[in-house]
Amino acid sequence: MPEPRKVVIIGAGNVGSTFAYTLMQSGLAREIVLVDKDAERAQGEAMDLNHGLFFAPPVDIRAGDYDDCADAALIVITAGAKQKPDESRLDLVQRNVKICKDIVGEITSRTSDAVIIIVTNPVDVLTYVTQEVSGWPRARILGSGTVLDSARFRYLLSAHCRVDPRNVHAYVIGEHGDSEVACWSMTHIAGVPMTDYCERTCQHVCSDEDRAQIIEQVRDSAYHVIESKGATYYGVSMALERITSAILRDESSVLTVSLRAGGQYGLRDVCLSLPAIINRNGVDRIIDAALTDAEQEALQRSANVLRDIITQLNL
Ligand code: NAD
After folding, report:
1. pTM of the model
2. Dihedral sign for Cα atoms in the order 110, 114, 120, 125
3. How far, in Å, is the centroid of ligand 1 from the Cα of 204?
């Protein structure tokens, strides 16, 4: 039986260690184990985190190995190559598919009970690979997907409308990458559709140009951050903490994780992000919403981009 609050993080680089730091402060986990092929790095990170324990809720943090997966409730994979400036997430495919398959082999030889979250890019392709290689129920293997992109979208809309991001409801769906789709038709502030909100509350019309600018900023955020500081890790770590909370606390929260579509939105046999209910089962249900024709076409294009790559992998 898995320990209900044990989290194993594979990959103790920027994302893995920052997620451990975020998780440690959240009080969600009772045990956090860092596993990395660079064992010294994992040990150093665990040591550094332990020095903050006096200021945090009780939690055991240590470096470990794959045997720690045997009784983990949640395993989060952040190991692998990251984008260099000017590289897209899809450019990482060859390097990270191999790493992902190796890691999944290590995990599945020790447990079949955990929920796995894939973070390594290209996250949608690797979520699909993990589902295929493991043979586990698909609900228990999900990708961090566009949870981060949806948060970026909400942040930018909140700045545009000068309102708390927590009152903005907005979703980015599809690929976590260049073909992602910002769903304006599902966007609202305090229950008021975005267009009405701007007209009636802000007394300005949100122009097509405003929208295009916001979408571009959401899509290109990672490129800008990587160009400035080499990697993104704070936003994604908070997104991972949010997903972890939904799973470990059995919250049934709506999050746009990467999952295997089962006919919703006319999509099958591809992993991409759709709004879904997340709880201790992993992906419990997918929310099927009515998109505009343009959004539906864009989502289909995004699925095609991912399907083309998956087909070439010959799994
Ligand atoms: P990083 O280079 O800082 O860390 C990667 C770590 O993986 C290193 O410590 C390395 O030793 C380890 N590693 C590599 N191969 C391994 C293996 N076979 N077994 C165990 N450990 C292994 O990179 P990072 O900035 O932490 O990014 C990690 C991944 O997360 C990248 O693919 C990046 O693109 C992705 N990422 C995803 C999102 C998202 O929203 N999904 C956001 C940011 C980054």
Report:
1. 0.97
2. positive
3. 43
